[in-house]
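2 proteins. here.
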Amino acid sequence: MAEYGKEKENARKNPQSSVESFEGLDTSLEERAELLDKTQWAGDFEWHQIEAMVKYMSVKRVPKDAALFREGMVESFMCLILEGTVQIRKEDEKGGVKSVAMLGAGQMVGEMSLFNDEPRYASAIALKDITFLLFRREDFERFSKEMPLLAVNVLTRLIKLLGERLRRTSAVLADYL
């Protein structure tokens, strides 16, 4: 547990993005589109829209026990998990670590960093080898300028998913009040 606190402090002191260390997978546009199309996240989109979105994304892989990001880091990307499991961990006031969520295929993580420059609220750790689509903020901004109507649809999807998360979190919180 104390080791986790040291990692969090190191993340704050050295805000270098860990995204540069992720293994990139060489995939064609069609392969990326097929990967996205298989997720529940893409359910509301047509094939041509999926193909347009993945032009701005890359496929990455990290091994079991690796961090997608650490609490306290300032980075600007979200991940859409294609396979594997990610645990979201939060350090408590006493330096202990709490598991706050488990995410799997078709779920996103890190989406708030597309919209703000705040440090990561929690850490995201691969419990199994994971493969994911990476969407960097600069690519999302370019996507929004080049394809504004589709970007509105993506933002609407993100807002709906964030709303669902907020409702679940509120329900859990209510049990503790």
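next one coming up
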Amino acid sequence: MPVMPYVPLESSQSAVLVKPMSNEEVYTNLVNTHLDEIYNFSYHMLFDHEEAQDVAQKTFIALHKNIIKLDLNFPVRAWLFRVARNNCLDAIKRKKALLFSDLEEESLEVPSEDPGLETKLDDVLFLESFKEQLKDLPANVREIMVMKYYEDLTFEEISDILARPLNTVKSQFYRGKIRLYKIIKGL
């Protein structure tokens, strides 16, 4: 049985009493603390608000089902990201299973020959381009880029969440950075 967290209770005396939190209180606290970051991670992996909401919901349903089994010595945040990541990968696999006839035709634009187009992009355009180009990265690299740039996680935290060696995470991040640079620059 996991150790229960404690909540301070006010008393009329100067001493502070504590009582164990129920599983529901722990669950509510965890949802309130981590919902936004799990949703944001999911959105940046899937680029679809409804899919991201579904993934976040599935993640917290899994938390609710497993709250009694969780080891509070293990970072719950890492567990939540791992569950969200797996749900995102499942959603990506489902999307890939669509038939080509279900996809809309995209228009192809021919780039202009105007030399002024080669000027440096301003920050806003670069960020928009960055978001768009993330879609072209493989899911295993995209998840690292999202965790690093959008969730501001350390390489150590990403390594724990993905259950990959630290050096593997770092090398995949730097390879992903190079790929993004080449995609954005059109190389």
